[in-house]
Inverse folding.
């Protein structure tokens, strides 16, 4: 009990003295749903949102970075007699550990952590450009991401990350036996205020 109390005091004191910074980011997504359709291709979309950067410890090297992002995801499914775009839009909440490779202001960094996505739009457009709502997708997508980035003066940040979904994106019984996982390449530019 004493160790738990001491740990909580240490965490609270570290965060209370920390220089928390905030920022905004936007960029390109290239997404696919593995195994849902045999001939599926990637959906190109964008993401936009904000983040907080919270120092861990007293140095200028390790951070906790929670984010909230609007993200266009999904897939494109084309065949001989059909052409459909599966538009799955999410509010994603990544919780990231972000170590810089040194304490320098201009430096490379890594990111790793879990992400929870909340489905806010589930739309399919076909060849006739008639969109329709589809309820076959799960409302929550849980995954993990890994990435690298470059920070210029700890203000501008350029980042590449890969997300792999752990949960099955589909809830429909006929495709449930497959492992319909989200796969997302994510390129972004961020600015820390």
């Amino acid at each position: 009990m004493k160790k738990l109390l001491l740990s909580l005091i240490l965490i609270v004191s570290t965060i209370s003295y920390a220089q928390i910074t905030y920022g905004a980011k936007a960029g390109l997504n290239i997404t696919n749903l593995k195994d849902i359709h045999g001939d599926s291709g990637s959906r190109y979309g964008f993401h936009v949102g904000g983040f907080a950067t919270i120092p861990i410890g007293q140095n200028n090297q390790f951070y906790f970075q929670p984010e909230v992002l609007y993200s266009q995801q999904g897939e494109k499914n084309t065949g001989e007699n059909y052409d459909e775009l599966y538009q799955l839009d999410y509010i994603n909440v990544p919780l990231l550990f972000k170590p810089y490779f040194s304490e320098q202001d201009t430096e490379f960094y890594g990111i790793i952590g879990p992400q929870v996505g909340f489905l806010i739009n589930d739309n399919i457009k076909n060849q006739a450009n008639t969109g329709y709502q589809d309820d076959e997708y799960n409302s929550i997508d849980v995954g993990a991401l890994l990435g690298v980035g470059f920070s210029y003066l700890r203000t501008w940040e350029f980042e590449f990350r890969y997300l792999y979904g752990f949960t099955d994106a589909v809830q429909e019984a006929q495709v449930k036996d497959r492992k319909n996982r989200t796969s997302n390449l994510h390129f972004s530019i961020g600015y820390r205020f």
